[in-house]
Amino acid sequence: MRGVAHSEFPELLELEAIIREGGSRLDTQIACEVDVGNEKFPVHVVALGNPSPDVPVAGFFGGFHGLERIGTAVVLAYLRSLVGRLHWDSVLHRQLESVRLVFMPMVNPGGMWRGTRANPNGVDLMRNAPLDALAGAPFLVGGQRLSCRLPWYRGLPGTPMEQENEAVCRVVDQEFFGRKFGIALDCHSGFGTSDRIWFPYAHTVQPIDHLPELHALMEIHDQANPNHRYVFEPQSRQYLAHGDLWDYLYQRACAKPGRVFLPLTLEMGSWLWVKKNPRQVFSRQGIFNPLIGHRQQRVLRRHLSWLDFLSRAACGHRHWIPGDDVREQYRERALQHWYDKPPP
Ligand SMILES: [Zn+2]
Question: Residues 175, 53: contact at Cβ < 8 Å?
Answer without folding.
Answer: no
